[in-house]
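Weekly modeling sync, notes
Attendees: AB, CL, MP (scribe)

Item 1: holo prediction request
CL wants a bound-state model with fe (ii) ion before deciding which constructs to order. AB pointed out that an apo prediction alone won't tell us much about the pocket. Agreed to run with the ligand included and paste results into these notes for async review.

Input as submitted:
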Amino acid sequence: MANPAFQLPIIDLSSSDRISTAQSIRQACIEYGFFYLINHGVEEELFQRVFEESRKFFRLPYEEKMKMIRKNYRGYTPLYAEKLDTSLSSKGDSKESFYIGPLEDIATVGKLNQWPPAEQLPLWRSTMEDYYQRVLNAGKALLSLVALALNLDEDFFEKVGALDKPNGLFRLICYPGELGNGDQQIYGASAHSDYGTITLLAAEDVSGLQVCREKSEQPQVWEDVHHIRGAFIVNIGDLMERWTNCLFRSTMHRVVPTGQERYSAAFFFDPNPDCMVECLKSCCSESCPPRYPPIRSGDYIEERFRLTYI
Ligand SMILES: O=C(O)CCC(=O)C(=O)O
Ligand SMILES: [Fe+2]
């Protein structure tokens, strides 16, 4: 049973008291691995434009969308093509998505982005590029506070190379309303934790997102994450969990079908692929040794993606 009183902490990115904000982030990441982020610099009006353009794309005929089929993690992913919970035997998750990677044209990866033709959706690319850049800025500001929350220098993530050509992967998602197949095991997004550092999620006010704070507890307790207008829902990913030796939780979450169509936009703020992620000194000791060996960020994320696609 979902607990109606469940409420995630709220973090104000614009607060001038950085030390106390960092403290609140630390507590939120230890207890929940999830929090709301407000006053983050991305206007609500831009959220709305992103969802408007996203809706136009997903409503295009199937053949048109398939012309932009995902290549090298950029472009369109059709219904049931991804399964986030790799232990499920059912077909894939009931969602369509569209991935946009780094924008800089100096990076070879940037060149792989696909865009709907301007004649078809004239405002699409500029809207998504604008959003991408702004979320990247919010994510960088947030990461400096996360560093403070871990008693590190604010520019720690820059110094370890995580933000060299930062690897933001932006995914527009459309969950269909009616499934019409009565299959109990079909989720919009099946249970998973995110792969990277932090995720900044924007969603329309349609329920469905749930978190499970104690993944090993049985039966699992799933709690509904409510919508707060204009706020990002931020969560810690697995690479951050590895960095912090599980001090910060990469919490399991999912999207359950509610019969209502749902649009969301998830921005996975991941380290540069060459960044080595290894247990922070402040998060291990003789009695609490590192639980994971160091790993190259790109290798870790690549492998997780490989397992996700059917
Ligand atoms: O759409 C949502 O609310 C969550 C999406 C999600 O968890 C993901 O894509 O990793
Ligand atoms: Fe997720």
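Recorded for review: Helices lie at 18-31, 44-58, 62-66, 124-149, 156-159, 238-243, 297-308.
Action items: CL to compare against the apo run; MP to circulate these notes.
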